[in-house]
């Protein structure tokens, strides 16, 4: 019987372990990627393969490596779980054709995934993903593969540590010594994932103290619903911030490409505000200039900063498969999305939760302000902004029905505010008369619908969201 087709979503392909995410499925994906790389890059360059700390990720990575080796590529296989940004940087450092990363990022513990990266270390663009999908066979019967022990003996698969090169890159991008000597207390929640130990290692040797929680491998992700750096998953970390009298909470997701933040009072700083802070840090604290690339699901504070500092702001669809190519095209200063993933000029066009966290610490030290005061400083520039998101289960078969329902509603007012524009680039984004917005979007990685809003009026947040849920048919 033929297997269902594998479709790459917002960031690679994800599935449920032992259901549709199997060794066979990973072989099929690896075959499609190998065929794609053979056309766009040839087989003379190596391919990086890395993985996270989820159940059996190292075994799935070995399966992918066997297929790539079977296609004639030399495979550089990480010698342990590695942060996604370290895997992405390894592509550039080793002059590789691309990378496979076995991770489901922030998904529940039942899932795993298959991410692909291009020669820049960034997400493959949408056209490239379609080419990969077209090369994925219905089964793995005729897929070439070289057993890993045989491949290791022939150096067709070589195990390597991506950390040293990645650390050198970080040290080129940011001076760590002021952070080490600042004497601040940093609480780090690595959500049982690949970020464990990194901040401790990078910041050791000075007055600054790093305290870590959830820094061991545990594929069940206890004390959280999933390793996604937003409430309620970070509630334990927020409580621990005040318990340890920490100055800041930094949270990295399962594969450490995203960052979350809590202030010194144990209050969550949402990911839109973090994006605004990072942009302000580069524009004001560091005095740098360059374009900003943002997905349509993230903050309009960036547009206001762009106007004030006279830098262009480009908006894309959701996902780094759109952000990364645009960053390369315009040589962006910073790029990011609503999920808490941010990328930076001079680095790979890929989300980096570790580097983003270090930049946030550097902002605290340079401006001599704790996180809550940094937010106040940002709001002095752009005004207060309030954000909230609600995720609801939605079977994929219902998507087309809901889309028709949204368009048929022809909403003229949402949350008591007039609708001034409808953008259907990626979902349905309603711009409101106060400059705020409502976005209804179907996840590209999970069977859920997301309803988001941002507004300058706190009392409008819940009415806007409730109207959005009503449009979708959720009460």
Helix and strand topology:
Elements lengths: L12 E4 L6 H18 L6 E5 L5 H14 L4 E4 L5 H10 L4 E5 L8 E7 L8 H9 L13 H6 L3 E4 L2 H11 L3 H4 L4 E5 L8 H6 L5 E5 L21 H9 L4 E5 L6 E4 L5 E2 L1 H15 L6 E4 L5 H9 L3 E4 L3 H11 L3 E3 L5 E3 L8 H15 L3 H12 L3 E8 L5 H11 L3 E2 L2 E7 L4 E5 L4 E6 L5 E8 L5 H12 L3
Parallel strand pairs: 2-3, 2-4, 3-6, 7-8, 7-9, 12-13, 12-14
Antiparallel strand pairs: 1-5, 4-5, 9-10, 10-11, 14-15, 16-21, 17-18, 18-19, 19-20, 20-21
Short description:
With 475 residues, the protein is α/β, with parallel strands linked by helices. It is built from 16 helices and 21 strands. The longest helix is centred in the N-terminal third of the chain and has 18 residues, at 23-40.
What is the total domain count?
3
Q: Percentage of helical residues?
A: 25-40%
Please report the number of helical segments: 16
CATH superfamily of the largest domain: Alpha-D-Glucose-1,6-Bisphosphate, subunit A, domain 3
Task: Describe what this molecule looks like in 3D.
This protein is an alpha/beta fold and 475 residues long. The chain folds into three domains: 13-166, 3-Layer(aba) Sandwich (Alpha-D-Glucose-1,6-Bisphosphate, Chain A, domain 3), CATH 3.40.120; 174-382, Alpha-D-Glucose-1,6-Bisphosphate, Chain A, domain 3; 386-472, TATA-Binding Protein, CATH 3.30.310. 36% of the residues lie in helices and 21% in strands. The chain is built from 16 helices and 21 strands. It has helices at residues 23-40, 57-70, 84-93, 126-134, 148-153, 163-173, 177-180, 198-203, 235-243, 271-285, 301-309, 320-330, 353-367, 371-382, 399-409, 461-472, and strands at residues 13-16, 47-51, 75-78, 98-102, 111-117, 157-160, 185-189, 209-213, 248-252, 259-262, 268-269, 292-295, 313-316, 334-336, 342-344, 386-393, 413-414, 417-423, 428-432, 437-442, 448-455. A six-stranded mixed sheet has the order 1-5-4-2-3-6, with helices on both faces. α1 (23-40) packs across α4. The longest helix has 18 residues, at 23-40. It is globular.
């Amino acid at each position: 019987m033929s297997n269902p087709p594998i479709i790459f979503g917002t960031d690679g392909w994800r599935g449920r372990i032992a259901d549709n995410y199997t060794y066979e499925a990973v072989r099929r994906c690896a075959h499609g990627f190998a065929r794609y790389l053979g056309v766009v890059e040839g087989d003379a360059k190596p391919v990086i393969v890395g993985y996270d700390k989820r159940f059996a990720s190292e075994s799935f990575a070995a399966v992918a490596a066997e297929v790539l080796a079977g296609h004639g590529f030399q495979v550089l296989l990480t010698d342990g779980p590695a942060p996604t940004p370290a895997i992405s940087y390894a592509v550039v450092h080793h002059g590789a054709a691309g990378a496979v990363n076995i991770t489901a990022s922030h998904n529940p513990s039942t899932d795993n995934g298959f991410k692909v990266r291009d020669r820049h270390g960034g997400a493959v663009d949408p056209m490239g993903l379609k080419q990969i999908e077209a090369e994925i066979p219905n089964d793995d019967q005729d897929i070439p593969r070289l057993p890993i022990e045989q491949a290791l003996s022939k150096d067709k698969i070589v195990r390597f540590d991506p950390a040293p090169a990645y650390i050198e890159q970080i040290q080129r991008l940011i001076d760590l010594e002021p952070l080490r000597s600042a004497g601040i207390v940093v609480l780090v929640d690595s959500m049982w994932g690949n970020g464990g130990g990194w901040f401790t290692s990078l910041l050791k040797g000075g007055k600054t103290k790093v305290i870590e929680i959830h820094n061991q491998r545990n594929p069940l992700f206890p004390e959280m619903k999933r390793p996604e750096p937003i409430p309620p998953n970070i509630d334990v970390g927020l409580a621990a911030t005040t318990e340890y009298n920490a100055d800041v909470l930094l949270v990295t997701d399962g594969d450490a490409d995203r960052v979350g933040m809590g202030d010194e009072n144990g209050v969550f700083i949402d990911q839109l505000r973090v994006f605004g802070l990072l942009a302000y840090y580069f524009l004001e604290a560091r005095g740098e200039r360059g374009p900003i690339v943002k997905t349509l699901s993230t903050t309009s504070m960036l547009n206001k900063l762009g106007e004030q500092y006279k830098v262009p702001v480009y908006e894309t669809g959701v996902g780094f498969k759109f952000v990364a190519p645009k960053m390369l095209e315009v040589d962006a200063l910073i790029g990011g999305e609503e999920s808490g993933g941010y990328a930076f000029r001079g680095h790979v066009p890929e989300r980096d939760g570790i580097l983003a966290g270090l930049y946030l610490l550097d902002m605290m030290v340079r401006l001599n302000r704790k996180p809550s005061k940094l937010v106040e400083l940002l709001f002095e520039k752009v005004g207060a902004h309030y954000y909230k998101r609600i995720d609801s289960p939605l079977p994929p078969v219902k998507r087309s029905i809901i889309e028709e329902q949204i368009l048929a509603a022809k909403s003229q007012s949402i949350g008591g505010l007039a609708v001034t524009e409808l953008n259907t680039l990626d979902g349905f984004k309603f711009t409101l008369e106060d400059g705020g917005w409502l976005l209804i979007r179907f996840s590209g990685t999970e069977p859920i619908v997301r309803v988001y809003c941002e507004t300058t009026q706190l009392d409008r947040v819940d009415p806007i969201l409730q109207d959005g849920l009503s449009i979708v048919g959720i009460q």
